[in-house]
From TrEMBL, chain A:
InterPro entries: Aromatic_CoA_ox/epox, Ferritin-like, Ferritin-like_SF, PaaA_PaaC, PaaC. One of its GO terms (biological process) is phenylacetate catabolic process. The gene is paaC. One of its GO terms (cellular component) is cytosol. This is Phenylacetate-CoA oxygenase subunit PaaC.
Automatic annotation (TrEMBL), chain B:
GO terms for biological process: phenylacetate catabolic process. It comes from Lentzea alba. GO terms for molecular function: phenylacetyl-CoA 1,2-epoxidase activity. One of its GO terms (cellular component) is cytosol. Its EC number is 1.14.13.149. Keywords: Oxidoreductase. It is an enzyme of class 1 (oxidoreductase). It comes from the Bacteria. Pfam families: PaaA_PaaC (PF05138). The keyword Oxidoreductase applies. The keyword Oxidoreductase applies. This is 1,2-phenylacetyl-CoA epoxidase subunit A.
Length: 294, 312
């Protein structure tokens, strides 16, 4: 007896109508995975981890909203964005793993906090929970997706064909994320006194973490032609944020900047206190059963 | 006049044709459908919680993506079903209020806790499997919007069931600790899964009228038997056993004999005494209440926008 028996006829054998695939190799099929000649492989791996960890850790945060969003439609949208970012993370960690000889799960689950290279904006608690609310979450999404969209649009020209292909695929996703965040920013900024106040507070919460997004890291300098220098994105991203905040009737927060720790921040593996708890939760089961297969 | 309408309704139902939103229907039919579809919608929404419990801890990135997509599908099912109730004149906000005030029910299975990652697989296999057995007949139910929603939902549930079973297959090929985890999970979920078909026919109050109206197509006991017959070979292929000493093939009946679930536990959980009843409702209430300022802002913004357009 086939195990689908009664409903097999309903399902058929085509999986194309499922909204979200769970594989990712197909997405990059046909892409040349050879390393470009002369590329600094160690730096390439570090760079893939940076961009991959940004997506992985932010996805982990966004998925905390699952079953907690203000409306069912929004629950679906936030899960959708989390899934897109998780997909980007998997492709980037896999690319890093081709240099480091480790797979995506070894990289996601078996690295310690100091080895994660995501920016702080991805990891801080912006709600649901004590660290924020839906307004804070939208503020982070707006900043993050505006920045990453600008980054990916340049990364399409990367000398690494895999990074270029990942950027090409991610671009449409990120454009949707930014659009979604911008629409909510306008709704909340314009909606009621309370929503305006909360959205403004959300921006204030995330603003100290904006500066880090545009700080050039030595890894990026070593990868000229492969990596994007984030400093080059600043004016474009500032322009986008300004346009959205204007449309929403919101004020751009004063340029406060979270201080670095002995000169280091997320790209150097130095994180906020929130990161340890996030990783403890994310990694505990994988680490508890060494040798298990999932 | 009323008799003509009623006659036409009866004939439509008996001819296995569909009743559509604008057709005349008896009040009892409408109320029964709203109650049943809302309960189903609530079950999808509350059902996001037990599995959502494992998204942050999923042990591989692939499983995390599968689980997140699945829980997202459940939100989607809730949406289609609330929309189907709206074709009958119900209102989503009102139904949500009834849910969080405990005036409408959801499937009791979600009041059981998910304690290990194997539960994610077992829920897919047994709980979604039982749900599919209950729901496939509803694809032919007499109310058109409900029947059409069910076709889509059954397709997706069937996909979830396959994914759940595939997770368990993978775990059974892993370490002894993983195999033990799967068997422990099956032991905890088997009886609650059988309870999903509802009380025995002898004690079920709604069955008869619902069968006549073609809202319901098979009795609780018939579906339960079908589910047991379907699940046994799957358990054998997987290498797990069900915790029922009476479970064995009956050559004469051509079906499996099986024991009776603990109906006292069933009623205790239905009446609010399950491990998670309060937690599930409190979680849903908090999400709804925490989101009220967002929904109000969206409405206020839309109204301002409409006024501006009107003025222009």
């Amino acid at each position: 007896m086939s195990f689908d028996n009664a409903y097999e006829s309903l399902l058929g054998h085509e999986d194309a109508h499922w909204a979200f695939g769970t594989g990712f190799s197909e997405a990059l099929s046909g892409v040349n995975r050879e390393f470009p000649p002369g590329v600094d492989r160690e730096a390439l791996a570090a760079y893939c981890l940076m961009l991959g960890d940004d997506a992985l850790i932010f996805s982990q945060r966004l998925s905390e909203w699952c079953s907690r969003a203000p409306e069912l439609e929004e629950d679906i949208a936030l899960a959708n964005i989390a899934l897109d970012l998780l997909g980007q993370a998997r492709m980037l960690l896999t690319r890093a793993g081709e240099v480091l000889d480790r797979d995506e799960d070894q990289l996601a689950y078996l690295r310690d906090e100091r080895e994660f290279r995501n920016v702080h904006l991805a990891e801080i608690d912006c709600g649901p929970g004590p660290g924020g609310d839906f307004g804070t979450t939208i503020a982070r999404l707006l900043v993050f997706s505006s920045w990453r969209l600008a980054l990916f649009s340049r990364l399409r020209g990367s000398a690494d064909p895999v990074l270029a292909a990942i950027a090409e695929k991610g671009l449409k996703e990120l454009a949707y994320h930014r659009d979604h965040a911008a629409q909510w920013t306008v709704r909340l900024g314009d909606g009621t006194d309370e929503s305006h106040r909360r959205m403004q507070a959300g921006l204030a919460r995330v603003w100290p973490f904006v500066d880090e997004l545009f700080a050039t890291h030595p890894v990026e300098t070593r990868l000229a032609g492969v990596a994007v220098d984030p400093a080059s994105l600043r004016s474009e991203v500032d322009g986008v944020l300004e346009a959205v905040l204007n449309a929403a009737g919101l004020t751009r927060p004063a340029d406060t900047r979270a201080a670095r720790v002995a000169g280091m921040a997320g790209r150097d593996g130095v994180h906020t206190e929130a990161m340890g708890y996030l990783l403890a939760e994310m990694q505990h089961l994988h680490r508890s059963l060494p040798g298990a297969v999932w | 006049m009323a008799d003509d309408l009623e006659l036409r309704f009866e004939r439509t139902v008996q001819a296995e044709s569909r009743i559509e939103p604008r057709d005349w229907m008896p009040d009892g039919y409408r109320k029964t459908l709203i109650r049943q579809i809302a309960q189903h919608a609530h079950s999808e929404i509350i059902g996001m919680q037990p599995e959502g419990n494992w998204i942050s801890r999923a042990p591989s990135l692939r499983r995390k993506a599968i689980l997140l997509a699945k829980v997202q599908d459940e939100a989607g099912h809730g949406l289609y079903l609330y929309s189907a109730t709206e074709t009958l004149g119900a209102d989503r906000e009102d139904l949500t209020t009834k849910l969080i005030e405990g005036r409408q029910k959801y499937s009791s299975i979600f009041n059981y806790p998910t304690l290990t990652f194997a539960d994610v697989g077992v829920i897919g296999w047994l709980v979604d499997g039982a749900a599919i057995c209950n729901q496939v007949p509803l694809c032919r139910t007499s109310y058109g919007p409900y029947a059409r929603a069910m076709i889509r939902i059954c397709k997706e549930e069937s996909f979830h069931q396959r994914q759940g079973y595939e997770l368990l297959m993978t775990m059974m090929r892993g370490t002894q600790q993983q195999r033990d985890m799967v068997q422990d999970s099956v032991n905890r979920w088997w009886w609650p899964a059988l309870m999903m078909f509802g009380p025995p026919d002898s004690e079920s109050t709604n069955t008869e009228q619902s069968m006549a109206w073609r809202i319901k197509r098979d009795t609780n006991d018939e579906l339960r038997q079908k589910f047991v017959n379907m699940s046994m070979p799957q358990a054998e292929a997987l290498g797990v056993t069900f915790p029922d000493p009476e479970l064995k093939w009956n050559e004469e009946r051509g079906q499996y004999d099986f024991g009776s679930p603990d109906w006292d536990e069933f009623w205790q959980v239905v009446k609010g005494g399950g491990v998670c009843n309060e937690q599930r409702i409190a979680h849903r209430r908090k999400a709804h209440e925490d989101g009220s300022w967002v929904r109000e802002a969206a409405v206020a913004h839309a109204q301002k926008h409409a006024q501006k357009e009107g003025a222009a």
